[in-house]
Design goal:
globular; 5-stranded parallel beta sheet; Luciferase, domain 3; GMP Synthetase, Chain A, domain 3; binds 5'-O-[(S)-ethoxy(hydroxy)phosphoryl]adenosine; 7-stranded mixed beta sheet
Length: 649
């Protein structure tokens, strides 16, 4: 982390929005910041009024820390706001989704078509017994049916829980069991980097341990028999069969503003992921507002967020935010380097993408692949770029600005979390000058501050990021675990939200987010708990104990290094190392594969038995060791360091 700090603090470049961009932007100056500050609730109410409500709310906010309720008494439907109202307003023929499959297949869907498909599928879900309040798990590739299924769940008031298609069967069944999901929606398979991702087969494995699932719906993605699957009579149903005789008449269910819209699991500091809960009115208000202002979205824009709907970025900035704004957007199934490393730029050029939102890990990969690849494509339609998921290093920021943005597109570096639901710290591109590596200022209506451990505000310098007042799209809790909700986010300071990120503030009050301060790693923009990987390792028969740390990686930002103590019966070997890496993949998913495994006889522990991860990080990064005086046995560290260096050398 200290390298990042050094790097960031040397960064002095400032980029003003161009006069042309400013002239056409939704927000051109700091007026909204001042207005939001004057009357935060009135400001959020103004946003909420831009949604369609079946019944108005009677009270804007009830705040009993850590519980907030927004737009109390109001009734609305998220799907209605993303689809029906646009069709009613004459936008039925507007293209909602321009979808490309990895092999190059293509499908466009207008808002009217989305309405038709979603209504039919919603009816099919009802016919299979899904009722308002029932949880539905989704495990799908990035195909239009994923967005449609999410919207269909919202339409009938069944909270959805999307599980990223790269997670293992164990991860999937853990999530299903935790929320007692009643139905699972999947596809036979998906394409990823030219390979078939056997989703249904993984579901079959997960279903052995998912007793709550009554029915499984399977979309037929593979049209040429590339992924033959088993269908279990009575339990498994083809999507196209259900759709064939489904009625397209399915009015959207009026939901209470505080009804659960979805559960999305994210990693925490224990081995068990947290089911983050988002409700309807506040969440929709937050994603609607941020999509419109942060991405300066206009009716003629072609928006492309490259995230997977399995992560929160895809929930908020593919499904709900852009669709609530009646956007036209690109959705892409596969990898950025399939069939070649210029795929993204070809997609931007082919569809005239104007606003492009991706992650620093992708940008660093593009840098490696060379600037001549984007240069071969017409990227002149791009007018705004975004970044999300991890700190963007100034070097990557500048590369992005030059080679993708042609030095004319503002860059919005957006800080937020699964828990915050919507973007929290970000420039407004027509109003805020940017500095490479800084997410700049809090979105109007959001109160972000830096605090010390004791809760003292830091105006300039380093501290913990905090959010000091409730915001509409905030998480409403952790599914089934109110205590963990309180402990994780609300126990550091009284009534103030603790996101778990370290940060510094400069002389202009700009935020420079440095990364997690807890035992959560951010690997290629994905959150993985050190404990999750440790539990996966000790699950292997040869492993007695393990300690996992994040180490710097030039593309992924952070990579996983694991220190492993073997049981007496096992011997260290390259084969065992491979086997352990594979075991983690099977337990969690490929995103958690350790980069390095180091076999050791001991781990550095404090006298109270706590593993000192800081020292392990220093060892793995080859740094001089910091303070070892609190160690129970200081010699452990020296011998570990020597062995690690031998191995690396
Ligand atoms: C990190 C992704 C620096 C941060 C939307 C946060 C960032 C975690 C940024 C949330 C950014 C996200 N700059 N760090 N612009 N955006 N992060 O829940 O550590 O997958 O706590 O949400 O990613 O990850 P999550």
């Amino acid at each position: 982390m200290s390298d990042t700090i050094d790097h960031l603090l040397q960064e002095k470049r400032v980029f003003e929005p161009s006069p042309e961009f400013k002239a056409q932007a939704h927000v051109k100056d700091d007026t909204p910041y001042r207005e939001a500050e004057k009357d935060r609730l009135a400001y959020w109410e103004d946003w909420a009024k831009q949604l369609d409500w079946f019944e108005p709310w009677t009270k804007t906010l009830e705040w009993e820390p850590p519980y907030s309720k927004w737009f109390i008494g109001g009734k609305l439907n998220a799907c209605y706001n993303c689809v029906d109202r646009h069709v009613k307003n004459g936008l039925g023929d507007k293209v909602a989704l321009i979808w490309e499959g990895e092999p190059g297949d293509r499908r466009d869907l207008t808002y009217s078509e989305v309405l038709e498909e979603v209504s039919k599928f919603a009816n099919a879900l009802k016919k299979l017994g899904v009722q308002k309040g029932d949880r539905v798990a989704l495990y799908m590739p990035m195909i239009p049916e994923l967005a449609l299924a999410v919207l269909a769940c919202a339409r009938i008031g069944a909270p959805h829980s999307v599980v990223f298609g790269g997670f293992s069967a164990t991860s999937l069944s853990d999530r299903i069991v935790d929320q007692e999901a009643k139905m699972l929606i999947t596809a036979d398979a998906g394409w990823r980097r030219g390979k078939v991702l056997p989703l249904k087969a993984t579901c079959d494995e997960a279903l052995k341990n998912s007793p709550s699932i009554e029915n499984v719906v399977v979309v037929n993605r593979m049209k040429n028999g590339e992924a033959p699957i088993d269908m279990k009579e009575g339990r498994d149903h083809w999507y196209h069969d259900l759709m064939a005789d489904a009625s397209s008449d399915c009015p959207a269910e009026p939901m209470d503003s505080e009804d659960l819209l979805y559960i999305l699991y994210t990693s925490g500091t224990t081995g068990k992921p947290k089911g983050i809960m988002h409700t309807t009115g506040g969440y929709m208000t937050g994603v609607y507002a941020t999509t419109k202002w942060v991405f300066d979205l206009k009716p003629e824009d072609v928006f492309w967020c490259t995230a997977d709907i399995g992560w929160v970025t895809g929930h908020s900035y593919i499904v709900y935010g852009p669709m609530a704004n009646a956007a036209t957007q690109v959705m892409y199934e596969g990898a950025p380097d399939s069939p070649s490393r210029d795929r993204f730029w070809k997609i931007c050029a082919d569809h005239g993408v104007t606003v492009f939102y991706t992650a620093p890990t992708a940008i660093r990969a593009f840098m490696k692949w060379g600037h001549d690849l984007p240069a071969q494509h017409d990227l002149s339609k791009l007018r705004l770029l975004g970044s999300v998921g991890e700190p963007i290093n100034p070097e990557a920021w500048i590369w992005y600005h030059k080679n993708i943005g042609g030095e004319k597109c503002p860059i919005v570096d957006t800080w937020w979390q699964t828990e915050t639901g919507a973007i929290m710290i970000t420039p407004l591109p027509g109003a805020v000058k940017t500095k490479p590596g800084s997410a700049t200022k809090a979105f109007p209506g959001i109160e972000a501050k830096l605090l010390t451990d004791e809760g003292k505000e830091v105006e300039k310098g380093g501290g913990y990021l905090s959010i000091s007042s409730p915001w509409p799209s905030m998480l409403r809790g952790i599914y089934g675990d109110p205590q963990r909700f309180k402990d994780t986010y609300w126990s550091k300071w009284d009534g103030i939200y603790f996101p778990g990120d370290g940060c510094t503030r400069d002389e202009d009050g700009y935020f420079w987010i440095l990364g997690r301060v807890d035992d959560v790693m951010n690997v290629a923009g994905h959150r993985i708990g050190t404990m999750e990987v440790e539990s996966a390792l000790v699950d292997h028969q040869s492993v007695a104990e393990s300690a996992v740390v994040g180490i710097p990686h030039d593309v992924k930002g952070t990579a996983i290094a694991a220190f492993v103590i073997l049981k007496d019966s096992a011997e260290p070997s390259d084969d065992l190392e491979k086997e352990l890496k594979q075991h983690v993949v099977e337990q969690i998913g490929a995103i958690a594969r350790p980069e390095k495994i180091m076999f050791t006889a001991d781990l550095p522990k404090t006298r109270s038995g706590k593993i000192m991860r800081r020292l392990l990080r220093d060892i793995a990064e080859g740094k001089t060791l910091g303070d070892t005086t609190t160690l129970a046995d200081p010699t452990v560290v020296e011998s570990l360091k020597n062995r690690y260096e031998d191995k690396e050398g």
